[in-house]
Design goal:
Strand content: 15-25%
Helix content: 25-40%
Radius of gyration: 23 Å
Number of domains: 3
Shape: globular
Amino acid sequence: MLVKTQPEEFQDYLTDASNMPGGNVEKIFLPESAKEVSEILAEASALGKAVTISGARTGTVGGAIPFGGYVISLERLNKIKSISKDTMSAVVEPGVILADLQKAVEAEGLFYPPDPTEWSCQIGGTVATNASGARSFKYGATRDFVEGMTVALADGDVLKLRRGELFANGDGVIELKTESGQKITAKVPTYQRPNVRKNVSGYFNGQPLDVIDLFIGSEGTLGVVTEVELKLLPKPKGFFSGIVFFADEKDLMAFVEEAKYVSFANRAALITDLRSEILNFRSEAEDKLNASLIEYFDANALKFISEKFPETPGNMAGAIFFEQETTEETEDVLFEAWNELLEKHNADIDGSWFTTTEQDREKMRAFRHALPVSVNERVVRNKRRKIGTDMAVPDENFPAFLKYYKDILNASGMEYVIFGHIGDCHLHANIMPRDEDEAVKAGHIYGRCIAQAIMLGGCVSAEHGIGKLKSKYLYVMMGERYINEMAELKRAFDPKGILGRENILGPRFTV
């Protein structure tokens, strides 16, 4: 195990993609086994040292930034232990890079759907934040693919969890036993979760609560995942992808609504649980319009990205990137179904891009992923931080929320783009301040968008988590009572409050 103790060795571990300033640390540990992780935690617990878990540091909410104490970097716990066609699963350590896992899985003819924008993230980070991305429209988030995990608790003790084996009782009480025989009793928070497709705002409390789900999305505050078993699917046989341009925003929105409705209707007649009968799910759905992703670009995003993709048509109100899984037998009929839908809603079919080849699909994915990269380049050039939203609202309130975004941002006079997961009613509005006055104004607009999302029954974070930067907004969404319930839950697993200090709950609720 490598231990870093010199300040000149710390710099890379004092920031993440949020660019939150002020990080500092006493020691950095790079363990190479789960046993070493437990030993570090036992030492930290005995000394009362804060512990921050570090992965690829691609998070945008400051969760990996330490403010004192120890850092445990999981980068050397990076083994893919097994990939099994028989069990349709992979067992991996938390430091495995997502892109590496997906390549290894595809080489075996299998498929791991979670697809966050940042492919260099680590699996442990995706579990800690319940990461999702574009394909969550069809397949859900990371939670839907976690079958088992090993967790090192704050005192170094170990907890092994398998899906379907341990649930909270009818009163919301969890009773479990660690590997050493220690008994832990905890009460699940009682808040009602918003009726949105994506939500990583606070601890999960779905009913009935499978205890494994409590740790997924807990952002390193309840324990450290040292191994995870992931469910895999058969690799799709083929696909049909398109980036489709619309001259009229009303046509674009009508297309999205019908594409969503048809996709959901076709799925509803099949199965809802991806962990069962997946082969039937795929084969029965092959001849039906059933998008795996529906992504949005507003007019500003198209203008912005045309700097890198000059072939982007001009004077468009927006674009949709969609994808449909196919087979050789169904490719033609599905192409015709999508073409009919696009014609119905006045898409610029001649100027749009379509493909069934891997090479061209990668170009389309590059188009989608180049936008946030370009935004980041612009804000660096402006020497400012971008202000990026991550709220989701219920389906019925989404059109009003998108209108609110555009009205308030257009009135501001600031540079912005809106893009993202329109299939899940979850878009990212990125504001790019050019000076300090605009930075202050952008912060105020962000707060107003948060308030609007909450008023419309939404959540303050759909996929990026809460970390340190959004804890005050979670407080606004949840209120004192429910934040206190979350704090009590954390104390049950971390009595000294050493793990992920200030993540999720903020400084007021640090033990």
